[in-house]
Amino acid sequence: MIDRRSARVCWALAVTALLLAQCSSQPAPAPASNANARAALTPVLSVKELMEHIIDPTADWLFDAAVVDVTASGTTTSVPKTDEEWLRVERGAMLLAEASNLLKMPRAMAPPGTAGSLPVTSGEPAPELTPAEIEAKVNANRDLWNTHADELRTVALASLAIVKARNVDGLFQIGSDIDKACENCHLEFWYPGDKEAVLADQKKKVTYGGSTPKSQSPTPKK
């Protein structure tokens, strides 16, 4: 004869086993899709606004960090001296590095209704592509666009290392390196018609030692 207590224990064990089997057979919750993750990011600015209001002003903190001013009265060198001045340059490098991720977020090239540049000479093409042409070019070459954004991040992080080391001499190289990273992207997507002429001009420029400067580039177009 089966003991009632033993029967209850067996029944409880059977129910527990059944519940465990059902739990283990339940599928794991599906992870959020990449599409949903991207949908949570809503760009507010166009690329044009991002450049004008965030990237360009931030880059100026680095461009202006070390300046040699030559006048008839003599030469004046301006570099960070106080902790506060160094902190401003450090913030600029950090913001510029993070801004490269903002560039990689798909967004409009310019606000609605923005007109393209006008031809310098009648009958000739405009010096810059229109916002629609730029956007089409970026969408067709998204990997290249992201590569240029990564190049900006690389030089920004290199600038950050220079600032953290309080390397005054390195500050004079920062502006040239950032300028080159920006110009490489501009020549590809903004004014590709100038690319051949600019590259040829870079090859003509030499240092006192007779070699081509590593990071020399023309003044970027605004």
Question: What descriptors fit this protein?
Answer:
single chain, Four Helix Bundle (Hemerythrin (Met), subunit A), globular, 2 strands, 222 residues, mainly alpha, 59% helix, two-stranded antiparallel ribbon
Helix fraction by DSSP (H/I, runs of at least 4) = 55-70%
Low-confidence segments:
206-222
Number of helices: 8
The main pleated sheet reads as: 2 strands, antiparallel
Task: Report the CATH architecture.
Answer: Up-down Bundle
The helix-and-strand class reads mainly alpha
Q: In percent, how much strand structure appears in the residues?
A: under 5%
- The count of domains is 1
| Helix/strand order | HHHEEHHHHH
**What is the number of strand segments?**
2
Query: Judging from the principal axes of the Cα atoms, what is the shape?
Result: globular
End-to-end gap: 96 Å
Strand order of the largest sheet: 1-2
Evaluate the radius of gyration: 29 Å
Mean pLDDT: 79
Write up this protein.
- The structure is a single chain.
- By secondary structure, the chain is mainly alpha-helical.
- The chain has one domain: Up-down Bundle (Four Helix Bundle (Hemerythrin (Met), subunit A)), CATH 1.20.120.
- The protein is 59% helix and 5% strand.
- The chain has eight helices and two strands, in the order αααββααααα.
- β1 (67-71) and β2 form a beta hairpin.
- α3 packs antiparallel against α4 (83-104), α4 runs antiparallel to α6 (142-164) and α6 packs antiparallel against α7.
- The protein is globular, with a radius of gyration of 29 Å.
